[in-house]
Amino acid sequence: MSKKNKLKKTLVDQILDKAKIEHDSLALNAIEGNLPEGILEVDIFKTLALIGDKTGPVIGILPITEHLSEKKLAKISGNKKVSMIPQKDLEKTTGYVHGANNPVGIRQKHNFPIYIDQIALEKGTMIVSAGELGRSIRINSQSLADFVKAEFADLTEAKND
């Protein structure tokens, strides 16, 4: 890659580099739907911040094409119920704005429980935000889970719910 095409490293890139965890830096904005060639929506995962009635903040990561089952996340995280953190409170809770939440950055600052949908494990790699709007990383799913101490679980709503 030529120097002028090289992306400036995000804090997430720097953290992963320091930990010697292999990943690719990507310039993409899934919210706007501008996907580079070869990247499918089903490969991109969103990082959702919720609040549990017993545990406080809890993070759920699932494909952007799926809907989170709050019931499933509540059950596996030891809560009776969980609900999305209001957008106005998101940055003060996670340190990131809507669209930039990412498990690496959140784990560096907080010890929130993190759950990744099991489809990521089946796929082998996943794309998540790199902590800045329009920036993402492609990473081995198991490596990410190990690094952020996440558990894999079924987090999505069944198609016929």
Written description of the protein model:
The protein is of the alpha/beta class and 161 residues long. It has 6 helices and 8 strands, in the order H-E-E-E-H-E-H-H-E-H-E-E-H-E. The strands form 2 sheets. A 5-stranded mixed β-sheet has the order 4-2-3-5-8. A 3-stranded antiparallel β-sheet has the order 1-7-6. The mean pLDDT is 92.
> On the 0-100 scale, what is the average pLDDT?
92
- The percent range for helix content is 25-40%
The arrangement of helices and strands along the chain is HEEEHEHHEHEEHE
Please, how many helices? 6
Q: What does the main sheet amount to?
A: 5 strands, mixed
Count all strands and give the number: 8
Judged by helices, strands and strand pairing, the structural class is alpha/beta
Strand content: 25-35%
- Largest sheet, spatial ordering of strands: 4-2-3-5-8
What does the overall shape look like? globular
Write a compact overview of the structure shown.
It is built from six helices and eight strands, in the order αβββαβααβαββαβ.
Topology of helices and strands:
Elements: H1 11-18, E1 23-27, E2 45-52, E3 56-63, H2 70-76, E4 82-84, H3 87-94, H4 103-109, E5 114-117, H5 119-123, E6 125-129, E7 135-140, H6 141-148, E8 151-153
Parallel strand pairs: 3-5, 5-8
Antiparallel strand pairs: 1-7, 2-3, 2-4, 6-7
